[in-house]
Amino acid sequence: MTDLERQLMGWRLTTAEIVYRLPDHPSLLQTFVWQKLDAAPKYPALQKFLDFWEREIEAKIHTVRVAQPTSGRPRTSRCTEDRGIFDLRDQLVFWPATVPTAT
Question: I need a labelling partner for 87 at 20 to 30 A (CA). Which of 22, 29, 55, 75 fits?
Answer without folding.
Answer: 29
